User: Fold this.
Amino acid sequence: MAVSRIDQKFAQLKKQGRCALVTFTTAGDPDYDTALNILKALPAAGADIIELGMPFSDPMADGPAIQAGSIRALKGGMTSRKLLKMVAEFRKTDAETPIILMGYYNPIYIYGVDKFLEDALKAGVDGLIIVDLPPEEDSELAIPAKVAQMGCIHLATPTTDPARLTNILKNASGFLYYVSIAGITGTQEPDIGSVRAAIEMIRTQTDLPIAVGFGIKTPENARVFADFSDAVVVGSAIVNIIADNIDQEGLANPALEARVLDFVKMLKAGVREAKRSKGEE
Amino acid sequence: MSPDMKADKNTYRAGPDNEGRFGKFGGRFVAETLMPLILDLEEAYRDSKNDPDFKAEFDGLLAEFVGRPSPLYYAERLTEYLGGAKIYFKREELNHTGAHKINNCIGQILLARRMGKNRIIAETGAGQHGVATATVCARFGMKCVIYMGEKDIERQKPNVFRMKLLGAEVIPVTCGSQSLKDAMNEAMRDWVANVADTFYIIGTAAGPHPYPELVRDFQSVIGVESREQILAKEGRLPDSLVACVGGGSNAIGLFHPFLDDDIDMYGVEAAGHGLDTDKHAASLAGGKPGVLHGNRTYLLMDDDGQIEEAHSISAGLDYPGIGPEHSWLHEMKRVKYVPVTDQEALEAFQICTQYEGIIPALESAHAIAYVLKFAPTLPKDHLMVMNLSGRGDKDIFTVADALGAKI
Assistant:
C-alpha cells in the first residue's frame, strides 16, 4: 500500500470536495495502551490521515507541547520497534487510513534506513516526514524511500523560494507539507494571507496535495485553512489535551481518550464547514 | 568526494567537500526553514575569504581587541618535574575573556554584520562562549540572547553575571537535561523563528555546514601562530600536539595547520567518572555515528538512537557529541583520541597551578592530565605543544567543591 494509500485517500477526498483533517499524536504518549486506543478511534472521530510522532530526545523543530509529549513517551519506554508494533496493531482494525510517521532522522539512521523502511512498510506505515532532512540530504532517506514505495513527505516553509521548491519537489511524494510559520510547532499564529499566497505559488509547480500545519489550534483555524488547502494538520492542540489529562505520575485519567476524540470531532466539524470550491460536490 | 580525502588530494586539509562532508561526517541536517539561511551563510563566508578587507579587520581585532598572538610558553618546571618531553603551552587562556572562544566570535560577528543581521543568539555550557559572544556583541552594538541550561546557570553564576553586565539577555533552558545540548536545541528553535534578523554564533566546530569549517578556520590562528612560534624558538616543528576535545574547536584550531606534517596529535576526551560508567562525555570512545544538531558525527546515544546526557566535571566538555571533522580524523586514524577522567583532570589542575603558576580551565586540565601521563614516556628532545585553551578562574568553585574545601 504505502504511498498509494495516501494517493487513494486524497483522490477520494477530492471527489467528495473535502479537505483532509490530519491529526498528530506522539506514539506512546502518555503510554502505549492509551496512545493505541486513541489511534484506533481517530478515524471514526474524523481523522482522514494520521500523523504519528516518533519521539526523540532532542526535538529541535518542536514547541513545548510536542517536546513534552515526546518526553512522556520516552519515559514510558517507547522505542522505534514498539512504535512499529503499534502501527501493526492499528492496521488490524483499519486498512484505509494512511499513517505517516513524523520525527527526526537519528532514530531511523540508527535502526538502519533500509531495515526501517522494510519494517515500517510491513507494519503498515505509508509515509515519513523527517523534519531535519532538507532536500540537500535526500540521498539519506528520501531516495531509498522512493525506491521502496514509502511516501516521503517534504516540507516547504515561508523561507522556501521557487528555486528551492523545485528541489524539494524532486523526491516528494504523498503530499507536500506547508509549514505555515517560520518557527516551531504550536507557537505563533500563522498569517492567513501569506499562507494562501504561498500555497497558490506552490500549486503552479506541483499537482501534489498540499497540507498546512504548525500553527493550527482550533476548529475555527482549521476551517479557515481548509478553505484553500488539501489538508490541515493539528498537533500541539491535541497533545495539550493529553498533557491536561494526566496525573503527576503521568497516568492517563479515565476521561483522556474521550476528551481527545471530542476535540478531533470539533476539528472535523470545522474542516467540514470550509467553503471549498474545488472538487465535484 | 570519497571518504578518503587524503587519497584524492594527498592532504588531510581539503575538507569539507561541497556537501559539507568530511568523509561521511558533517552535512546539513536542518529544518527546511533554516536551509536558505545556511546557504546564504556559506556564500557570505566564501565571499569574506576572498575579501582582503575582511581579513584585515579580523586580524586587526585579534591583535588589538583579543591581544594576539598568544605566547607559546616553555613550561619549564612541568618539563623538569615530568622528566621527559619538552613541553610548550599555547597560552590561549591569555586572550581577552580568558579562552580561545573569542577568536571564533570575532570572525562570526563580522560575518553577521556582513549579512546585515543585528540580533545574535548563542548557546553556552560553561559560559565561556556566552561571555565571548556577549563581549563581541557589546563591541559591535548588537542585541545578544544567550541560551543556557538551568543547571549550568546554577553552577556558573559568575559567567551569567558577566554576560548580563555585557548587555546580554540570558535565557534559562529548562527542557531536557538543562545543559549544553538543550541550550543548543533551544537556540535552534529561536533561530528558526527569527531567521530574518538573527545570526546564530555557534561556539564550537560542529553544527550544520558551513559552521564546522568556518569555526575551524577562525580558530586555526592558534595552529598558525604555534607553527611560527615553535620554528622561531626551536628551529623545527613539534613532535606532538595535545588538546582537549568537547566539540573540539580549540583542538581543530591547533591541529589543522599541522595535519599534513609528520606530527602525532592527541585529542583528549572527557571520561567523567570513567568510560566503563554511564557518566562521561567521550563521544568517540563511547559513542557511535549519528545525526544531531545539523551534522552527522559520533554521539552518545542508546540503542534506539535517543541522545544520552553527557557528564564531565568540566561544563565546557559536557556535550554528547563532537565536531564532524574530529569524527573523520578519528576514523582516518590521523589523530589519536584519548580519555581523561574527572579525577585525573582535577589532579592536573592542581599540578599546573602549583608548578607553573597558571590556573587552567578544567577543560584544559584534561589536556594537561594527558601530558602528565604521556610526557614522562618520551625522550627529552621530543617537542610537545599543548593548547592551554582557557583560564580556570571560572572553575575555582567547582574545584573547591570537588576537593571538599569551602570558599
In short: Chain B has 17 helices and 14 strands. The longest strand of chain B covers residues 264-272.
